[in-house]
Design a protein that fits this description.
Length: 105
């Protein structure tokens, strides 16, 4: 039985909203890279999170969104169904914070 005041579709909706969230992180990462296009030599030598972490953010954020949606269809009706979208959003926010702090423009 569902709790009073809680909709069953809320965790699924929250998980579906991770898709535009992941797209925003990917677009933000592209914009951060494009902002370093005019840099020469030592002025931007240490910009960005590094190749491995940048690749993980670029290719991992869409995977996080898809996995969150898939898992949410299974866990949405459970009492702790909101945990999957919350974890997905936390990972997306962490990725955005890493990009924001490592690209100093």
């Amino acid at each position: 039985m569902a709790r009073v005041g809680r909709r069953r579709g809320q965790p699924t909706t929250d998980a579906l909203l991770t898709i535009p969230g992941a797209a925003a992180v990917v677009v933000y990462s592209y914009l951060q890279v494009l902002s370093t296009a005019a840099c020469t030599g030592g002025t931007c030598a240490r910009q960005g999170p590094g190749e491995f972490l940048f690749g993980l953010i670029m290719y991992g954020t869409p995977v996080i969104a898809v996995v969150a949606v898939a898992l949410s269809f299974v866990t949405a009706r459970r009492a702790n169904g909101i945990v999957v979208p919350v974890i997905a959003w936390a990972l997306l926010v962490i990725a955005a914070v890493i990009l924001a702090t490592t690209f100093q423009t």
